[in-house]
Amino acid sequence: MKSSLDPSRLAPADMFRASLIGLRTRRLRSILSGLGIVIGIAAMVGVLGLSESSKSDLLAQLDQLGTNMLRIEAGSGIGIGTGELPDESVAMVGRIAPVEQVASISEVDASVYRNDLVPAGRTGGITVKAVDTNLLATLQGRMASGVFLDEAASDLPVVVLGSVAAERLGVADGSNGTIVWLGDEWFSVVGVMATLDLSPDLDRAALISYPTAETFLDHDGVPSTIYVRSDPDDIDAVRSVLPATVNPESPDEVEVTRPSDALEAKEAADQAFTNLLLGLGAVALLVGGVGIANVMVISVLERRGEIGLRRALGATRRHISIQFLGESLILATLGGLGGVALGSAVTAIYAWSQGWGVLIPTIAVAGGMAAALIIGVIAGLYPAMRAARVSPTEALRTL
Amino acid sequence: MGSVAPTAEPVDTRTVLALSGVTKRYPGTPPVHALRGVDLDIQSGELVAIVGPSGSGKSTLLHVIGTLDRASAGTVSVAGFDVDQLNDKQLSSLRSRYIGFVFQQFFLLAGESALDNVADGLLYTGMALSERRLLAEEALEQVGLASRMGHEATKLSGGERQRVAIARALIGTPDIILADEPTGNLDSKSGEDVVRLIEDLNTRGTTIVVITHDRQIAARFPRRVSLLDGRIIEDTGVVAQEPTP
Description:
The structure holds 2 protein chains of 2 kinds.
Chain A: H1 12-25, H2 27-65, E1 69-74, E2 76-77, E3 81-82, H3 89-94, E4 99-108, E5 112-113, E6 127-131, H4 135-139, E7 143-146, E8 158-161, H5 163-168, E9 179-182, E10 185-193, E11 205-209, H6 210-217, E12 225-230, H7 235-246, E13 254-257, H8 259-302, H9 304-312, H10 317-354, H11 362-389, H12 392-397
Parallel strand pairs in A: 6-11, 8-10
Antiparallel strand pairs in A: 1-12, 1-13, 2-3, 4-6, 4-12, 5-9, 7-10, 8-11, 9-10
Chain B: E1 15-26, E2 32-43, E3 47-51, H1 58-65, E4 73-78, E5 81-82, H2 88-98, E6 99-102, H3 114-119, H4 129-142, H5 158-170, E7 176-180, H6 188-203, E8 208-212, H7 215-220, E9 223-228, E10 231-235
């Protein structure tokens, strides 16, 4: 005679095997329902990855360009001023103690063309500016080719082109003495600048020195823009005294901006866009979860016979619900892994194509997997409860 | 779940199944009485056919005996355990160790080999898969399917599938095997093979209850219990049978 009744037991490995049965026998359906999760997670990982990668690129850029540069312009428009700064403003600014470098720019009333045959007016949007020879150093810019304007050539008809201007004028290399038609003279191109992130207006400009502008174009040399590099610790103090220093009579007509702020604002705008995309990713994930729940409910209905058999073999209700919950969880986990892989791949490829460093945040990967698991549990809970509630006698009567 | 001691005064140790005044009533208007006061004792080593037309209560009786359903009244004792005293979990445990089932629809798991389907007979006992597979090999040999172990179970012929299902019921050497219309989905030749296998297993000591509407098959078994409208109308009684060693 038996003495006791040991409880039904299902070893964890067997539980896992049982949960895989539905996925193995209904592969296409499982793949399709898991795809929703893949897309949702991939979207979230991709969006976070791309945003982080672009941000890291931007921070690197800011780091390189520095945030200690200020740009001073004369306010212009009705009743605000003439668009010109006082002649002595550059010297005045240079006397502020924490200011390290000052360079000015003056708009020149002339146009530059590829040659003297180009009809007047077809400037390609290229402006001509007279600049101080230390402008490149102040902007921390680089030359793509050739050299920048220097004292030695300050009185000669030489010009340095911004990257876009060079492209539009058909100057590939600034070091081989190409000539362009500027004003009413032939000017030699001595250099082409690399793209300037903090002053993109100079990318579309032809730069000449003040003496050159005066000699060849009869330019008055009144500055319109001044760039200032100051001690980073005193940047705010410098900023606050600049208007009054530049134009003591009407400081209100002076606009002081910090070009790096524009990059930071761009980043903030990107962040808002990222949040929107994240929201879309979350919606995709939700739809994916509903897809899994749907497939699981159908699966429970189809597999009533199997449920009945398992109950007859000694499965408790809990064993049945764990099996179906496990199935949903495995489906969501696989979807999550696929999504993380896809999202990372998209991030890596896009970041690589943009020349950014690839940065896939751990939070995106961990968060994506956690979201997939949570979705798996929620999606599987109801079907699992339904499966557990199936009466074995009714289940065995089906078919 | 704690262990459960068998009923204080177990029935005769050779009695594997004892039903007394078992009634099964399904609520409704009017309520349906599927079983009306069934008394039935089945001894170890018996081969019993429960026969009756459809609607006679055969399936309900099988479900009550198999502890898949509870009687509305009366007592049911299986393998020495009073079913009334056991909760749902304990009944699951009872089924996993003491009762084997064979169904008309086979209920084999797709995508699994014959061997693993048979091994699933002990799935809920917590026994390791390797151990279960060893026992499954033996069970498949007993039903003559040693050569089909690695085949996918659902791709075998009907007769072979039912033999896999029988092996699955046999694997844990349960006290009783309940077969619900085991030949119902088979052609006459495969059906005959399955009946012979059942007879053969019984001569080796397995207690088997076969539910069938087929009087010809029932007639071949040593004991027949006829059901009609939820009542036993005929029981040919226990036939002394010594299992061959």
